[in-house]
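Hello,

Our lab assistant flagged a job as stuck in the queue for most of the afternoon. It eventually completed. Since we weren't sure the result was trustworthy after the delay, we are filing this so someone can double-check. Below is the sequence as submitted and the structure that was eventually returned. Let us know if re-running is recommended.
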Amino acid sequence: MEQRVAVPVVNGLLSAHFGHCEFFFIADVVNGEVRQTKEVVPPPHEPGVIPRWLSEEGVNVVLVGGIGQKAVDLFNQFGVKPVIGVPAKVPKELVDEFLADKLVAGVNQCSH
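-- returned structure --
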């Protein structure tokens, strides 16, 4: 496996607040192509839990809408690169755009 990319999802789209998502869409990427995807329900949200959990799931990139600096630091500490300011779209579409280097990430949607 080359990369494992995670997207927090609520109502079928990227969740602006990853700590309150319904599940994470996780894509296994080999040679720039999505080989397998799954939906995984995260543990209950508490500060620091999700960065550690995603790292344990083998994730190395997370696409997020908004994120606080403390969470950015925790993701980096656990070897998970956050891509910040991602729009609310269908997760597979976002992963495809990320892999094609066409993902337009914008402003951090979090005021934490």
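-- support follow-up --
The delay was a queue issue, not a problem with the job. The result is valid. The first strand starts at residue 3 and ends at 10. The CA atoms of residues 44 and 61 lie 21 Å apart.
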